[in-house]
Amino acid sequence: MSSFYHETQTVFGTHKNPILQWIFSIDHKRIALLYMGVMFTLFFFAVGAALTMRAELFSPGSQFLEPQTYNQLFTFHGVTMIFLFIVPGIAAALGNFILPLMLGARDLSFPRLNLLSWWLYILGVVTGLSSLVTGYGFADTGWTFYAPYSIRTDAHVLSTLSAAFILGLSSILTGINFVVTIHRLRAPGMSFFKMPLFVWGLYATAWIQVLATPVIGITLLLVILERTLGVGIFDPTKGGDPILYEHLFWIYSHPAVYLMILPGFGIVSEVLPVFTRRTIFGYHSIAISSASIAGIGYLVWGHHMFTSGMSDTARIIFSFLTFLVAVPTGVKIFDWVATLYKGSIILATPMLWILGSIINFTIGGLTGVTLGALGADIHLHDTYFVVAHFHYTILGGVIFMFIGGLHYWYPKITGKMYDEVRGRIAFILMFIGFNTLWFPMFLAGYLGNPRRYFDYLPAFTPFHQIAGIGAIFVALGLMLIVYNFYRGLKNGKEAGPNPWRGTTLEWHIPSPPPLENFSKIPYVDFEPYEYKEGEPLVQFDENFRRVH
């Protein structure tokens, strides 16, 4: 095993205790692995909650859950998935590990701030889950905490609100660290348009973290003040305005969707050129579209509120902007498909996940445009159509991309290879299971099945039972992924520095990377995706000098 697992830098110097070496490490790679360990533990708890709800919904009527328990369960699922897994997700985990390697840097700009971000994340996790341990039960508001219900409910909402506030602070610090690192620590010669596209995705994400997250932090703090001090900001009985809460919440939460997806887009743009053995099509348009999505994404929050009450003029403007934000996303998909055209496609496990994510996300994006149309949204609002759209975007898109990135960089992170056959079987189970689970919900929602309900009319039974079967396949696929990664770590063959024959800088150093990544900072006088006759055009010798 590489020295990376045995050497570290900590805020207090050298520790002999291995636990203290990890939790006080300022090495970006160890902090990334700490994020991954906690995040995926919480992810599987959230998946367990989802499977429990799906079992309850297999037949109409009460099976084994009470309505209040069901409400708390879907709140736990939503809060855990959104605030504890997907929002920090790719950026805090893979971004922390890969960003300095791609830039040719030895660490992030502020290693101690990076460690503080992780500790704030842990504080948020503990705060959010404390009500489960103390016996108060979880919040029952859903992950949106809509007022005035979040102000009046007897459920234990304060700990969940406080946790989201703390997690927001962690996210802001991570965003600041990434922005400064990208501006100040790029390798000599690496201009902005020589950066890998994953870095572009993280850069756009970081600005959303810095600029949008304070809005949700202030909003949640106002709800905490309402519950504790009785100030009437959102409570209509005290002169407050609950619609104001919706505006403030979605001003953050719609950009947060792009905060989740932009790093995933970056992963797609990394994997495609490697497994087509060709330069990516439209590098500049993909890079600029990431910044465009981040910018336009601030302006479209109102499409969540077409049925909440706003002027017809505002509805038309928000509908237009919703269609507009689809344009740079469509540019990316066009460029990805063009990269595949006449490429030497290698259907390795990472490539399968990326192709599956493009298919799923395209369905999610097209149904999102449907919801952006005023007439359609009035009919489909608060139905399972919206839930299916959201899961096609986030689970079928973001999480598929995340898993694809984990498979792609697994050899770099661990120095070992997983089993390709098991990896492909896991993808097939997940892809079939996911579409069997969520596509029927489009039909159920179109026919009027409302979301968030503990029960449903018997006419919707076939849709929920088909979805229940799909959920079993998803669970099997996830378990096989975990088993495959575990077996790879224990018994996998040595990966070497560049098993995929990638072109970006992380593939030119040992796997796993040593403590400070680079023995010598490289000079970058080449594009990030240069292939010639299917082989990487750029090579380095053992002293990290470019071989011409």
Automatic annotation (TrEMBL):
Residues 22-525 form the Cytochrome oxidase subunit I profile domain. Gene3D superfamilies: Cytochrome c oxidase-like, subunit I domain (1.20.210.10). It is a multi-pass membrane protein. It comes from the Bacteria. InterPro entries: Cyt_c_oxase-like_su1_dom, Cyt_c_oxase-like_su1_sf, Cyt_C_Oxase_1, Cyt_c_Oxase_su1_BS. The chain crosses the membrane at residues 32-53, 73-103, 115-138, 158-180, 200-225, 249-268, 280-301, 313-331, 343-363, 383-404, 425-446, 466-486. Keywords: Electron transport, Heme, Iron, Membrane, Metal-binding, Respiratory chain, Transmembrane, Transmembrane helix, Transport. It is found in: Membrane. Belongs to the heme-copper respiratory oxidase family. This is Cbb3-type cytochrome c oxidase subunit I.
